[in-house]
Design brief:
The complex is a heterodimer of chains A (about 475) and B (about 300).
Chain A lengths: L21 H8 L6 H13 L1 H14 L7 H26 L7 H15 E2 L7 E2 L2 H20 L8 H20 L2 H4 L5 E2 L5 E2 L2 E2 L3 H23 L2 H11 L1 H6 L4 H27 L1 E2 L6 H14 L4 H17 L4 H19 L3 H25 L12 H7 L9 H21 L2 H21 L5 H19 L15
Antiparallel strand pairs in A: 1-2, 3-6, 4-5
Chain B lengths: L1 H31 L6 H18 L10 H28 L8 H22 L4 E2 L2 H4 L6 E3 L2 E3 L1 H23 L1 H11 L1 H6 L4 H27 L1 E2 L3 H16 L4 H21 L8 H15 L14
Antiparallel strand pairs in B: 1-4, 2-3
Classes of the chains: A mainly alpha (about 475), B mainly alpha (about 300).
Chain lengths: ~475, ~300
C-alpha cells in the first residue's frame, strides 16, 4: 500500500489555528475605515506596518525645526510633545486597562518635583545634583511605586469609586505641594534653578535641544508601548477592560494587571515630568492643576483611547490648536472659519444642499446687516474683532453693535441654545436652522470669542470632550470596538 | 466652650449647604449611576442667578421690593433656571450615552463642567461678584444663646435646608414620582417594562437635583458673599466627598455626609494652629480617601453585590 502524499500543511494565515478562536481572529482584523481618500490612506498605512510609520512620523517631527520655526513655535512644539507623552501614558490606564484615572497629572507632578529635588540646590547646603542617567530612572521607578500604591484601592473599588479616589489624589497632590514642607517644596513659589538634562555628558540647555530630546523620547516610548500592547500583559489589560469577570475566570490576575497599568502609566507620566521641568528650569504647583488633566484627556479622546498613535496625534493636534493657533486673533480666525467650512464640506451632502446653505448664509448676513443699519447706526457701529482680510470681508456681513460685549454674551447663550436645538431637530429643520446658527456663530466669534482667546481655548477643550463622546466615542484614529451583546 | 459651639453652628450651616449639593449629586447617581462632575458648576450658576436678581431689583443698598419677596424670587428663579439647565444637559449630553460604556458619560461630564466654568468666565467675567448681604438683611437680628450667635442668614439657611431635605424625603418616599425614581434606580429596564416613563423620571430627577444645587448656590452667595466662576469646582469636590462619605446613592447618607464635612471643616479652621488653616482642603480629601479605603460603600450605604 503506497502512502499518499501527505496533505499540505495548512498555511499559518488561513484556516483554523490551535488556540485562536476564528471569530475573535476575524473580528480583531476587521476595522472601520474612514470614507473616501482618507480610508485609502489608512489602508496604505496599514500595509506598511507600524515601525516604518512611526519612523516617518518621528523624522517628520525632527525635520520641522529646519523649516525655521521661531522661539514661540518651538515652545509650542515642546509643550505639545510633553502633553503627547502624557496622553500616550494615560492611554495605558484609560485606553487599555479601562480604568478611569483622574489623578494622572499628579504622577506628572511627582516626576517633575522628584527630578527638581534631586537636581537642584533645594535640599541641604549644596543641594543634590544627581546625573540625569541616575535621576530619571530613579524618579520613574519611584513614580511606578507610587502608582502601585494609588492603584491599591482598585482591589476593592470598582469603576466610579476608583475615579473619585484618583480625582482626590490629584487634588490632594496640588494642595500638598502648595502647603506641606515649604522649605523643601517651596510652597506656591515652587522650585527654581533646576539642572538641565544631560545626555552622554552633553548638557541640553537650548529649546531646540529639548525639542529633539522630546521627539526621541516620545518615539522610543511609543515603540516600547507598541511592543507592550501585543505582549501577554497588553492582552491581559484589554481582557480586563472588556470584561473583568471573564478575564478572571480565564486566570488573568485582574487586580495585579490593573496595578501594573497604574504603575506603567505613572512611570511614563514621571518621565514627561522630568523633561518638562528640566526644560522649564522651574516648577510650581499650578503646573499640575485640573486644566492640564483635561487637556490630556481631550487629546486622548480626540485621537482615540486605546490607540497609541491616536493618543499622540490627538494630543499634538489639541496642543497646537490650544497653545499655538488660538493665541493670535488672525490665526484663530483662519482656524475657526476653516473648521466650520471643513465640517460643512464633509457633513453636508449632496453638493446642492451645501451650495444652498452657504448661499443662504451669505444672503442672510448681508440682508440682516442692511436691515440693522437702516434701523439704527449704533447697531452696526462696531467692527469685527478679527484682523486682516477676514475682517474686511466680514465688515458688511456680520452685525457688530457698539456695545459688542453685552450683545456677544446674549449671542453666546442663544448660540448654545440653537446648537442644542440643531442637534435635536429633524433633518429638514436642521438644514433651515443651520443658516442662523452659522451666522450667530460668526457673530459670537467676532464680538466675543476672538477678544478672549484664553477663555475661548478652554471652552473649545470642553466642547471637544462633549462632542467627541457623543459623535465619535472611538476618536479620530481609534477603532470602534465590537460590542459583545449582553 | 462658647467658641466650640460657635464653630459648631457655623459648621452645621455650611454643612446644610453641602448637604443640598450632595443630595442632588446622589440622586443623579442613584438613577443613572453617573458621577455628574458638572453638578458643582450648576451650584455656581445658581449663585450668579441670585446675584443678578439682587442687581435687577436695585442692588443691595436700594432694594425696590420687600426683602422676603426678593429672597423668594432669588430662590425660585435660581431653582428654575438651574433645574432647566440640568434637564437640558441631560437631554443633550447624557441621554445619547445612556447605553454607552461607563467611561463615556463620565468624560462628557468633565467636559460639561469645564465648559460651564469657562462659559461663566466669558459671560460674567473673572472678578468677584459681591452679594453684600448685610446691606439688605440685618444680620444682628438673629438668636443669641449665651455667647453663641446664630445670625438671621444662618437661621434661614438652616430652616430652608431642613425643609428642602424633609420635602425631598417625602417626595421620594410618598409620591408616585418618588416611587418611579426608586424603581428606575433599582432596575431601569424592569421599571420601563412596568410602564414607568424612564426618560421623564430621569429628567425630573435631574431637574430636582439641579434645582437643589441652584438653591444652595444662592445660599452660598448670601452666606459667603462672594461669587466667582471657580467656586463650583471646589464646592463640587466637597459635595462629592459628602455624598461618598455618606454612601453614594443614599439620600440620608448625603445629608449626614454634608453635615460631617461642614463641621469638620469649620473645626479645623477654628482649632488649627496658626499657619495650618490652609490644610483644610487637604484634610477633607484625606478623610475621603480614608473612608473610601476602609468602607467603600460609605457610612450609610449598603455594600452592593456586583451583578453579572
Amino acid at each position: 500500500m503506497s502512502l499518499d502524499a501527505p496533505p499540505p500543511a495548512p498555511r499559518a494565515e488561513e484556516g483554523p489555528q490551535v488556540g485562536a478562536d476564528e471569530w475573535v481572529a476575524r473580528q480583531a482584523r476587521r476595522r472601520e475605515y474612514l470614507p473616501s481618500w482618507l480610508g485609502r490612506a489608512q489602508r496604505l498605512g496599514d500595509r506598511v506596518g507600524w515601525w516604518p510609520r512611526l519612523a516617518v512620523a518621528g523624522l517628520a517631527a525632527a525635520a520641522l525645526p529646519l523649516l525655521g520655526l521661531g522661539g514661540f513655535q518651538l515652545q509650542v512644539g515642546i509643550d505639545a510633545l510633553v502633553i503627547a507623552l502624557l496622553a500616550v501614558g494615560l492611554n495605558i490606564v484609560v485606553g487599555w486597562a479601562g480604568v478611569l484615572d483622574l489623578g494622572y497629572v499628579a504622577f506628572f507632578g511627582f516626576g517633575a518635583y522628584g527630578f527638581a529635588l534631586v537636581s537642584s540646590g533645594q535640599i541641604g547646603a549644596d543641594g543634590i545634583h544627581l546625573p540625569s542617567y541616575v535621576s530619571i530612572p530613579l524618579v520613574m521607578l519611584a513614580a511606578a511605586v507610587l502608582g502601585l500604591l494609588v492603584g491599591l484601592p482598585s482591589r476593592r473599588l470598582i469603576g466610579d469609586y476608583l475615579a473619585i479616589v484618583t480625582l482626590f489624589f490629584g487634588e490632594a497632590f496640588v494642595e500638598f505641594t502648595n502647603n506641606v514642607a515649604p522649605g523643601a517644596l517651596g510652597g506656591p513659589n515652587g522650585i527654581v534653578g533646576i539642572d538641565p538634562v544631560s545626555v552622554f555628558g552633553h548638557k541640553i540647555t537650548s529649546n531646540g535641544g529639548y525639542y529633539y530630546l522630546l521627539v526621541v523620547v516620545l518615539v522610543v516610548t511609543m515603540a516600547v508601548l507598541r511592543l507592550l500592547e501585543f505582549s501577554r500583559t497588553g492582552r491581559a489589560w484589554r481582557a480586563v477592560r472588556e470584561d473583568p469577570l471573564a478575564a478572571a475566570s480565564m486566570t488573568v490576575p485582574v487586580n495585579w494587571v490593573k496595578l501594573m497599568a497604574f504603575a506603567f502609566g505613572a512611570a511614563v507620566a514621571a518621565l514627561a515630568g522630568t523633561v518638562f521641568v528640566a526644560q522649564q528650569i522651574s516648577v510650581f504647583p499650578t503646573d499640575f492643576d485640573t486644566p492640564i488633566l483635561i487637556l490630556v484627556y481631550a487629546g486622548l479622546i480626540l485621537g482615540g483611547a486605546g490607540s497609541i498613535a491616536g493618543a499622540a496625534t490627538g494630543a499634538l493636534v489639541v496642543m497646537v490648536i490650544y497653545d499655538g493657533l488660538l493665541r493670535s486673533p488672525s490665526d484663530s480666525g483662519y482656524l475657526f472659519y476653516g473648521l466650520i467650512l471643513l465640517t460643512l464640506l464633509v457633513k453636508l451632502r449632496p453638493w446642492r444642499r451645501l451650495a444652498v446653505v452657504l448661499g443662504a448664509c451669505v444672503a442672510f448676513g448681508f440682508a440682516a446687516h442692511a436691515i440693522a443699519a437702516a434701523i439704527s447706526a449704533r447697531a452696526v457701529a462696531g467692527g469685527p474683532g478679527s484682523t486682516g482680510w477676514i475682517a474686511s470681508a466680514l465688515h458688511d456681513w456680520v452685525i457688530v453693535p457698539a456695545n459688542a460685549t453685552v450683545a456677544g454674551n446674549y449671542g453666546f447663550v442663544a448660540l448654545v441654545c440653537l446648537l442644542i436645538a440643531l442637534v435635536q431637530a429633524g433633518p429638514r429643520w436642521r438644514t433651515i436652522l443651520l443658516v442662523p446658527a452659522l451666522y450667530l456663530a460668526s457673530f459670537v466669534w467676532e464680538t466675543r470669542l476672538v477678544t478672549e482667546p484664553a477663555i475661548t481655548r478652554q471652552l473649545m477643550i470642553g466642547a471637544i470632550l462633549i462632542v467627541m463622546m457623543n459623535a465619535r466615542p472611538q476618536g479620530l484614529l481609534g477603532q470602534r470596538r465590537v460590542e459583545a451583546i449582553t | 466652650m462658647a467658641f466650640f459651639f460657635q464653630e459648631l453652628v457655623n459648621g452645621v450651616t455650611t454643612g446644610a449647604l453641602y448637604s443640598l449639593v450632595a443630595l442632588g449629586f446622589s440622586m443623579v447617581y442613584g438613577v443613572l449611576k453617573l458621577l455628574n462632575f458638572a453638578h458643582g458648576d450648576l451650584y455656581m450658576v445658581g449663585a450668579y442667578v441670585g446675584f443678578f436678581v439682587i442687581q435687577w431689583f436695585g442692588g443691595p443698598t436700594a432694594v425696590s421690593i420687600p426683602v422676603p419677596l426678593l429672597l423668594l424670587i432669588m430662590f425660585v428663579l435660581a431653582a428654575a433656571v438651574v433645574g432647566g439647565l440640568g434637564v437640558a444637559i441631560e437631554r443633550f449630553a447624557y441621554r445619547p450615552l445612556r447605553d454607552a460604556p461607563r467611561i463615556a458619560p463620565l468624560i462628557t461630564a468633565i467636559g460639561i463642567s469645564f465648559f460651564l466654568e469657562n462659559a461663566a468666565l466669558l459671560l460674567f467675567g473673572a472678578q468677584f461678584r459681591v452679594y453684600n448681604t448685610a446691606d439688605f438683611i440685618s444680620l444682628s437680628s438673629g438668636i443669641t444663646i449665651g455667647s453663641v450667635t446664630i445670625d438671621s442668614v444662618q437661621i434661614m439657611v438652616l430652616v430652608l435646608g431642613l425643609a428642602l431635605m424633609v420635602g425631598l424625603r417625602e417626595l421620594v418616599n410618598r409620591t408616585k414620582l418618588g416611587k418611579q425614581m426608586r424603581a428606575v434606580a433599582a432596575d431601569r429596564e424592569a421599571a420601563e417594562m412596568m410602564g414607568v416613563n424612564v426618560n421623564f423620571t430621569i429628567a425630573a430627577t435631574f431637574f430636582l437635583g439641579s434645582a437643589l444645587a441652584g438653591v444652595a448656590g444662592v445660599m452660598a452667595g448670601l452666606l459667603f458673599n462672594q461669587v466667582t466662576p471657580t467656586i463650583g469646582f471646589i464646592a463640587g469636590l466637597k459635595a462629592f466627598t459628602a455624598a461618598v462619605v455618606g454612601g453614594i446613592g443614599s439620600l440620608p447618607g448625603a445629608m449626614l455626609g454634608g453635615l460631617l464635612i461642614g463641621v469638620a471643616e469649620s473645626m479645623i479652621t477654628g482649632y488649627a494652629p496658626p499657619g495650618y488653616s490652609t490644610y483644610t482642603n487637604l484634610f477633607v480629601f484625606a478623610v475621603l480617601i480614608a473612608v473610601m479605603l476602609v468602607r467603600p460603600s460609605g457610612l450609610l450605604g449598603r455594600a452592593q453585590l456586583q451583578k453579572v
